[in-house]
Amino acid sequence: MQHTPNILVIRRRYLGDIVLLGSLLRSLKAHWPAARVTALVEKPYGEILALNPDVDSVLALPARRLEWPGFLRRLRRAGFTHVIDIDNTEKTALVARASGAAFRVALHHGDHPLKLRSMYTHAVYDPGEQHEARPITEYYLKALEPLAVPVAGREVRLVPREADMAYWRRFVGARGRVLLVHPGSRSPARIWPMERFAAVCDRVQDDLGAQVVLVGGPGERRLLSEIRGLAHTHVLAVDDPPSLSRFAALARVSSALLCHDSGPMHVAAAVRTPVIALYGSQNPVLFRPHGEGHTQVIPSQPCAPCVAPDACVPGDSYRTFCVRQVTVDRVFADVRKTLGSKDYRDRG
Question: How big, in percent rounded to 5, are the helix, strand and coil portions of the chain?
């Protein structure tokens, strides 16, 4: 085995899951400063890892069958010595084995048996109750155990480009408080009503004198237009969805982010911007925003009465509408507290 490790970390998706690899990647680099660390992700998520100083390169998982032969040749030629597979799928197990790495670690948890155990040299299991009771970053760090790599810290860090931040400073204004609002979510059931977002935007601008900026991802223009149409104050909006790296820069120059429990939440937390995150019935511990100074707006459980009895699917957090319990007054109070906090003023 080479003296200098050449490490492949596999986490195909999603945005927040990939951002939260930060403390695992930091520990690998702290233990082996000369190591080369490559992340294997689906193509849309590769860009965000360019902002992680502990990632040397990114491989994109093929999206089409015709791409696989060339990908496997590149994988083998890369000469990986270690593979850490966090995904626990048959496809990633085969990728791990095809890499030729002598040291191959897989993670699995709860009721999810390990796929293709023979493809790995080591397996790490996280019991279900323990897995659900801690941040997902602690699960990732368990992959270090077979490598005898100590945990170097639990920071999750992205470093936006200065040119991108300079651009957004001109857009939002160099002075004053800026509340960035991202109203989208992968799950329609987890989306807070647009009229409530509009009401918070009005109160933030009228009562706090802060500027509100709306931003969304691909396919979320309708949400931004709806909020602007319902708001009574002038709300800025980023009309074209920014790239992930440019969104990170926009979050960094903003005073705070109001959003759902989502990938953008984790990006903002990783650039040290306080977040006010809206939750429904999902686990508020497992994927909480990493770091200090964040606010989780969590409705009481179970809903009594249910806010959407004809649509909710109890037990499926992607199909429950509990976020609709959250009131405008509660969210505005949390935004006001965040914008006035010492943590915000001192974040630099």
Answer: 40, 15, 45
Domain containing residue 184: CATH number: 3.40.50.2000
Which residue range is the domain that position 43 belongs to?
A: 6-147
Buried b (16+ CB within 10 A) or exposed e, 16-40: bbbbbbbbbbbbbbebbeebbbbbb
Residue with token string 């791990």 = 96
Q: Is residue 79 part of a domain?
A: yes
SS3 268: helix
- In this structure, what is the dihedral angle of CA atoms 21, 23, 27, 28, given to the nearest 10 degrees? 10
pLDDT tens digit sequence for 118-170: 999 999 999 999 999 999 999 999 999 999 999 999 999 999 999 999 999 99
Phi, then psi, of 306 in degrees rounded to 5: -60, 135
Query: Are the CB atoms for 153 and 230 separated by under 8 Å?
Result: no
Distance CA 94, CA 87 (A): 12
Same domain, 28 and 114: yes
Q: For residues 39 and 21, is the Cβ–Cβ distance under 8 A?
A: yes
Residue entry with tokens 């909020």: 227
Tokens 């949390």, located at residue: 334
Residues 257-284: pLDDT tens digits? 999 999 999 999 999 999 999 999 999 9
DSSP 232-269: SS--EE-SSPPPHHHHHHHHHHSSEEEEESSHHHHHHH
- Residue 168, amino acid: W
